[in-house]
Amino acid sequence: GVDPGEGTPGLVGLVDDDDVGAQACADQFVGVTERPPVIQFVVDTSGSMNWVAGTERLPRAGERSKWDITREALVSAIGNMPDAAAVGLSFFPNTSGAGPECHRPLAAAPIERLTPEQRALIERVNAAQAAIGGTPTHAAYEFGVAQLEASTLAGSRFLVLITDGIPTFTRDCGGDGGTRVDGAPLVASVE
């Protein structure tokens, strides 16, 4: 601000107005409304998550799988989030089937604020999840988006998709679960 006795403009360089120097500035405080995040994690737990990162083999003594690393990262990230954050968690695949059963629209942990109960649920489902099956990324992504859209919780919305590879099932579960499918429809859906 400007002390009228000093005659020093308080907005130097912001406006080109000769009258600014003669005016006094007043401090203003504007309240900021916190917008806690609403986050849907969509996590790949396909069979390749059992492999050591950068390989196509299972861990040997002292090594960890991609799923072990991902599980630990989720626990750490969510554990450090404020209670006001809302978090949901879904895994893909969430069935070992193929064809129309490559992905079921089920949340492992529905989106809720991080109460002690929600944190315990997320830890429980995360610890119990095994990595097996193909990669229905498109169906899982669209389910995650639907979860965010259905949530009535206030806050900025985010979808975090964690995957180690290419989709092996289409949105409608076409494919054999082991062979790459066209990712262009997924990319178009994201756009």
Helicity range: 25-40%
Total beta strands: 4
| First-to-last CA distance | 46 Å
What is the arithmetic mean of pLDDT?
A: 86
Described by the principal axes of the CA atoms, the overall outline is: globular
Main β sheet profile: 4 strands, mixed
Q: What is the radius of gyration computed over CA atoms, rounded to a whole number of angstroms?
A: 24 Å
Structural class: alpha/beta
Trace the largest sheet across and list its strands: 3-2-1-4
What's the SSE pattern? EHEEHHEH
Strand content bin: 5-15%
**Helix segment tally:** 4
Low-confidence stretches: 1-17
Describe the protein's architecture and organization.
- The chain is α/β, with parallel strands linked by helices.
- The chain is built from four helices and four strands.
- The protein has helices spanning 66-79, 116-128, 137-150, 184-190, and strands spanning 38-44, 86-92, 109-113, 157-162.
- A four-stranded mixed sheet has the order 3-2-1-4, sandwiched between helices.
- β1, α1 (66-79) and β2 form a beta-alpha-beta unit.
- The longest helix is centred in the middle third of the chain and has 14 residues, at 66-79.
- The two termini are 46 Å apart.
- Mean pLDDT is 86; it is low at 1-17.
